[in-house]
Each structure stands twice: as C-alpha cells, then as structure tokens.
Design brief:
mainly beta; 6-stranded mixed β-sheet
Length: 114
C-alpha cells in the first residue's frame, strides 16, 4: 500500500508562489501516474494536475493552466507542484494521489491572501 506525505503549503500573498512536495513510500512509484487534487472549504475535491508515468505528459484544468506545473523525481519517489501567480481562489488543502490507489494523505494547506 503506497503512502504519501504532502508538504510545502503555507500562507502567501496573491501573485506569489509555492512549491508543494509529495513524498511517497513503497516500491511502486515510477510506473504509475500521479495527481494533485485540492479541496476548498464547502467545495468538492478537484483535480488540478496529472503527470503520466513517463513524466512527459501532463494535464491541467483551465483554472490552473499556465500557472501550475507538476513534475516528478522517480529516484526520490517525489512529486512536485510548482504554483505561480497564486490567487485567493487557490486557497485549499492540496493532496497528492497515485493512480489506482485509494490512499489519501493528510494534505497540505495553501492559503492565498488578497
């Protein structure tokens, strides 16, 4: 069973940047797709980034496209989310998740002040 620990969240002003990290345990990392989700208070959890197992293909919804970048380091079993030009509406708890796994970590809180 894969487990993850998200980190890197914090309080930032609008227009600022943060880099989130997701450290995974277990032997299966490099052969899976990985995702970042977020959940704002009172809202459903939404997908904000996907990186396929090859590392060469990524996906972003329009709400974050051009501002967020997902990447992975298979040697470190870590997935990253670089978030630039942050907006107050990006405020949420951010989670990473491996495809095919039901495990959710504790997430990391991102708060963007206006």
């Amino acid at each position: 069973q894969v487990q993850v620990v998200e980190s890197g969240g914090g309080l930032v002003q609008a227009g600022g940047s943060l880099r989130l990290s997701c450290a995974a345990s277990g032997r299966t990392f490099s052969t899976y797709d990985w995702h970042w989700f977020r959940q704002a208070p009172g809202k459903e959890r939404e997908l904000v980034a996907t990186i396929l197992w090859s590392g060469r293909t990524t996906y972003y919804p329009d709400s974050v496209k051009g501002r967020f970048t997902i990447s992975r380091d298979n040697t470190k079993k870590t997935v990253y989310l670089q978030m630039n030009i942050l907006k107050p509406e990006d405020t949420a708890i951010y989670y990473c998740k491996r495809s095919g796994s039901d495990y959710w970590g504790q997430g990391t809180q991102v708060t963007v002040s206006s």
